[in-house]
């Protein structure tokens, strides 16, 4: 068991999101628990998001991680409904709703309330179904996984289906062909190994410091 004053290493990964001019305009922040550059299989997504919020906000500092650019952070429905979004400043984040979220009245009402407070939403690994329209209407950005949506026709169909006021982000862009095709089809943003792999950042701290910082963060955001 880790004691309160014991020193520990904390980790977070970030991956750049670029515009059509290949300029970095945002970063997606990803949970890591070591220098192994992948999501640990054994970690629950809900728990991963909670730990990522502590690490990125209370320990590393959100602005330092992103260079004052917006951060995309994955959220499960439970994370959203439990109020964890409001640990984050609304002007600096996109709440990225995971693809396996269960749409419910509670989730939708919570998202609408958060949007009214200035939070912006992105839909991750999006595959269109009519049931998703309530979330589509809330979203500012929709991420299309090019390792799943593989053909030009399928990638073009998404742009035709999604309203033009919602930006499309092509993720898992692995080749120049993927990038050029997405740009020609009207996609607005791009993310993938063709540009950058996730970069892992580590910091050593104590359990006591991490907990006290997140409690302070909660109090600050409660007063906003």
Question: How would you describe this structure to a colleague?
Answer:
There is one protein chain. With 224 residues, this protein is α/β, with parallel strands linked by helices. The protein is 35% helix and 25% strand. The chain contains 8 helices and 9 strands. It has a 9-stranded mixed beta sheet. Helix 1 packs across helix 8. The protein is globular. The model has no long low-confidence stretch (mean pLDDT 87).
Average pLDDT number:
87
Radius of gyration: 18 Å
Q: Helical element count?
A: 8
> What is the approximate shape?
globular
Keywords:
single chain, 224 residues, alpha/beta, nine-stranded mixed beta sheet, 8 helices, 9 strands
In brief, what are we looking at here?
The chain is built from 8 helices and 9 strands. The chain has helices spanning 45-60, 62-66, 77-81, 105-116, 133-138, 152-161, 176-184, 207-222, and strands at residues 7-18, 24-32, 71-75, 93-97, 120-123, 141-145, 167-171, 189-190, 199-206.
Secondary-structure map:
Blueprint: E1 7-18, E2 24-32, H1 45-60, H2 62-66, E3 71-75, H3 77-81, E4 93-97, H4 105-116, E5 120-123, H5 133-138, E6 141-145, H6 152-161, E7 167-171, H7 176-184, E8 189-190, E9 199-206, H8 207-222
Parallel strand pairs: 2-3, 3-4, 4-5, 5-6, 6-7, 7-8
Antiparallel strand pairs: 1-2, 1-9
Helix pairs in contact: 1-8
């Amino acid at each position: 068991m880790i004691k309160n004053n014991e020193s520990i290493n904390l980790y977070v990964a970030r991956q750049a999101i670029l515009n059509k001019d290949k300029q970095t305009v945002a970063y997606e922040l990803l949970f890591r628990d070591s220098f192994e550059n992948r999501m640990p299989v054994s970690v629950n997504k809900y728990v991963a998001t909670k730990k990522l919020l502590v690490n990125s906000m209370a320990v590393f500092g959100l602005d330092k991680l992103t260079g004052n650019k917006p951060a995309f952070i994955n959220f499960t429905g439970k994370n959203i409904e439990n109020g964890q979004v409001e640990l984050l400043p609304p002007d600096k984040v996109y709440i990225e709703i995971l693809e396996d979220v269960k749409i419910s009245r509670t989730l939708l009402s919570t998202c609408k309330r958060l949007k009214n407070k200035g939070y912006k939403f992105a839909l991750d690994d999006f595959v269109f179904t009519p049931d998703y329209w309530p979330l589509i209407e809330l979203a500012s950005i929709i991420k299309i996984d090019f390792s799943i949506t593989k053909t030009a026709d399928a990638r073009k169909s998404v742009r035709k289906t999604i309203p033009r006021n919602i930006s499309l982000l092509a993720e898992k862009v692995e080749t120049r062909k993927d990038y050029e095709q997405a740009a020609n089809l009207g996609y607005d943003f791009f993310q993938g190994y063709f540009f950058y792999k996730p970069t892992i950042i580590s910091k050593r701290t104590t359990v006591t410091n991490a907990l006290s910082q997140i409690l302070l963060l909660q109090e600050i955001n409660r007063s906003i």
